[in-house]
Amino acid sequence: MSDRSAQAFWITAPGKGEHRMEPVGEPGPGDLLVRTLYTGISRGTESLVWHGKVPASEARRMRAPFQDGEFPAPVKYGYVNVGLVEAGPPDWVGQTVFCLYPHQTRYLVPADAVEPLPADLPAERAVLAANAETALNACWDAAPRPGERISVIGAGVVGTLTAALCAGIPGTEVQLVDINPARRAIAGGLGIDFAHPDEARTGNDRIIHASASEAGLQLALGAAGNEATIIELSWFGDQRINLPLGEAFHSRRLTLRSSQVGQIPPLMQPRWDHRRRLRKALQLLAAHPEWEALIDDETPFEQLPQAMDAILDGTGLCHRIRYKE
Question: What average pLDDT does the segment 188-195 reach?
Fold first, then answer.
């Protein structure tokens, strides 16, 4: 075992965190030693983990691939890591890669746990990879068709990326809905129509809900047209919500179904696996430099224990964590 070590961010109790030193061994055959360049904060999921709100029933499904510890704490959690391969097989050394690894300065993983970035994708933008993968999976679940009127409720990172993908389908009329007026400019920069909930269009063919709020899902039901499908992309953790499933829910024959990135939709499974999906998400990020507008703030890794509470309780979009050279 080498005396090489790394710093890792651990949640020590709900709402509290610290850096801990961790040993990092020498890479064996097929292993890679990766130095982290950036990690990203997944606001929805990591907020639930930070506040200790992961339901006991979901603890196993919520585990990140390289998580240490158990919910609620102490736990080392995260799954958006962009790094540089420092040691391993010669053809890997020097490559910039994406890995589902927590917030840690260096780490050792099997080579098949990482995906090289496309040559034209900057490492700074690649922290959106997990969000782009979720948005791609949501589009597969929603199955939008050319010409449809589609409403995406919730202009967070995943909602906005999902709206952008839907807007790329010929003839679609996509509207992004959010209570935050600051999201209008971002939507406009991506060529997407924006509306406050009070102005939201009704009679939509397809609704994708991503606001993680009871009011947002209620709005989705009201904005759906006859025989429309509503895709629930939010995850509420241990929160219970009330829905008006009386009223016109039955008479309009609405379909409400969930989307979750952990499973590839059945129609895609014969040809797609998680690696192919991640590779496609990275290719989409490379092709859309305008998506970088969804990264709206950055914090040095050494400040993360003090900053995490403000990061997760804020109203920002993707928050990037920067590591020293």
Answer: 97
Is 151's pLDDT higher than 80?
yes
CATH at residue 50: 3.90.180.10
Domain membership of residue 271 (yes or no) is no
Q: What is the pTM of this model?
A: 0.93
How far is residue 274's CA from residue 254's CA, in Å, rounded to a whole number? 30
Check whether residue 106 and residue 135 sit in a common domain: no
End position of a domain, from candidates 258, 275, 307: 258
127 contacts 96 by C-beta, under 8 angstroms: no
- Domain-embedded: residue 12: yes
Q: Which structural domain range is residue 249 located in?
A: 131-258
Quick: pLDDT tens for 51-62.
999 988 889 988
Q: Is 21's pLDDT higher than 80?
A: yes
**Contacts of range 189-193, beta carbons closer than 8 Å, 24 or more positions apart:** 189/290, 189/293, 190/160, 190/163, 190/164, 190/290, 190/291, 190/293, 191/167, 192/160, 192/163, 192/164, 192/167
- What pLDDT band is residue 247 in, cutting at 50, 70 and 90? confident
Residues 6+ away with beta carbon under 8 Å from 111: 30, 31, 32, 88, 89, 92
Residue 93 has pLDDT above 70, yes or no: yes
Q: Which of 258, 273, 297 is the last residue of a domain?
A: 258
